[in-house]
C-alpha cells in the first residue's frame, strides 16, 4: 500500500509509460518535536481504488455521495492521510481515529478533519486541486496549513493578482511569460491560503499580509515569520507537473517534504 504513495511521482510517471523505483516508506514514531511533514499523491483511478479500502465506513459513505472527480480526490486525500498517520501510530490506516466537524454548522460529514488518538496532539491539514492531493501533519501540536493549486485553474486568478502584489511587483510580473506569471501568482496564492489555514487569518487579510514579491526570474518570496506573527510560509516542490504547493508552520519547525 505504502509503495503506491511513495510512488507519488510514479503515479504520473506510470501513466506516461516510465518507471521510477519507489523509495522506502517512513514508519514508526514521528521525528522529535518541532517537526512536521507534508506528503502528496497524484489522483488516479488505481490509487483511488486502493485508498477506498483504507477509509472508515463513514468516509466511504461520504465518498459514495460525492460526484467524480471530487470523489477520487476525497478518497485519495483521506487514504493518504490515514496511511501517513497509521504509519506513525502503528495502526492499520482504516483504524486511525479521524473525525470531521464543520465549524459553521456542526455537521460531522464535512469540515476540517482531526486526529482523535489519545496522547497525541498532532495537527492536520489537507488540500487538493487538479490531480494533486497534499496532507500535512505537525507533530508538535502547532497548527499547520497546506495548500495546492493547479495551473489549469483560470477563474479568479486575474482578480487575485492586485490583492497579492503591489504596483512595483505587478510591473515585474507583467514582464514574465504568461506561464511564469501564472506560476508566480499561484505560488503566492497557495502561500496566502496555507497561512490563512494555519493561523486562522481570514483569507482577505492573508492575501494582503503575505507580502508577496517576485524577482525577474519569476521566483516568489513572502514575508518572513517575524512579520507574520511567527508563521513560516514555504513553497514546497509540487508532487505533479503544472501544480504548486505551499505549507505554513510555526517558525523554526523542521518540515519533511519527501
Ligand atoms: Zn457545515
TrEMBL record:
Matching entries from InterPro entries are given as:
4-PPantetheinyl_Trfase_dom, 4-PPantetheinyl_Trfase_dom_sf, P-Pant_transferase_sf
Can the keyword Transferase be found in this entry's annotation?
yes
Region spans: Disordered: 1-37
Q: Where is the composition biased (Pro residues)?
A: 23-32
Please list the residue ranges that the record marks as compositionally biased, kind Low complexity: 7-19
Domain of life, per UniProt, equals: Bacteria
The UniProt record lists the 4'-phosphopantetheinyl transferase domain at: 143-223
Keywords, sorted A to Z: Transferase
| Pfam families associated with the record | ACPS
- Gene3D superfamilies per UniProt: 4'-phosphopantetheinyl transferase domain (3.90.470.20)
Its family remark reads: Belongs to the P-Pant transferase superfamily. Gsp/Sfp/HetI/AcpT family.
Q: Would you tell me the protein name for this molecule? A: 4'-phosphopantetheinyl transferase domain-containing protein
In its UniProt entry, the species of origin is given as Streptomyces hebeiensis
User: Taxonomy-wise, where does this protein's organism fall, top ranks first?
Assistant: Bacteria, Bacillati, Actinomycetota, Actinomycetes, Kitasatosporales
Amino acid at each position: 500500500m505504502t509503495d503506491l504513495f511513495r510512488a507519488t511521482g510514479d503515479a504520473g510517471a506510470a501513466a506516461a509509460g516510465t518507471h521510477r523505483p519507489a523509495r522506502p516508506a517512513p514508519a514508526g514514531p514521528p521525528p522529535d518535536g518541532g517537526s512536521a511533514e507534508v506528503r502528496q499523491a497524484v489522483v488516479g483511478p488505481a490509487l483511488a481504488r486502493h485508498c477506498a479500502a483504507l477509509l472508515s465506513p463513514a468516509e466511504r459513505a461520504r465518498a459514495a455521495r460525492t460526484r467524480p472527480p471530487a470523489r477520487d480526490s476525497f478518497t485519495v486525500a483521506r487514504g493518504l492521510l490515514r496511511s501517513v498517520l497509521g504509519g506513525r501510530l502503528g495502526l492499520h490506516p482504516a483504524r486511525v481515529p479521524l473525525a470531521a466537524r464543520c465549524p459553521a454548522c456542526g455537521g460531522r460529514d464535512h469540515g476540517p478533519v482531526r486526529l482523535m488518538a489519545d496522547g497525541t496532539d498532532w495537527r492536520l491539514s489537507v488540500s487538493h486541486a487538479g490531480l494533486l492531493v497534499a496532507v500535512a501533519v505537525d507533530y508538535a501540536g502547532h497548527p499547520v496549513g497546506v495548500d495546492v493549486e493547479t495551473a489549469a485553474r483560470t477563474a479568479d486568478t486575474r482578480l487575485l493578482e492586485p490583492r497579492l502584489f503591489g504596483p512595483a511587483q505587478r510591473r515585474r510580473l507583467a514582464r514574465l511569460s504568461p506561464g511564469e506569471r501564472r506560476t508566480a501568482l499561484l505560488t503566492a496564492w497557495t502561500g496566502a491560503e496555507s497561512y490563512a489555514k494555519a493561523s486562522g487569518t481570514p483569507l482577505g487579510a492573508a492575501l494582503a499580509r503575505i507580502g508577496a514579491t517576485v524577482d525577474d526570474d519569476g521566483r516568489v518570496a513572502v514575508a518572513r515569520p517575524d512579520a507574520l506573527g511567527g508563521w513560516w510560509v514555504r513553497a514546497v516542490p509540487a508532487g505533479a507537473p503544472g501544480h504548486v504547493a505551499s505549507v505554513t508552520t510555526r517558525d523554526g519547525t523542521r518540515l519533511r517534504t519527501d
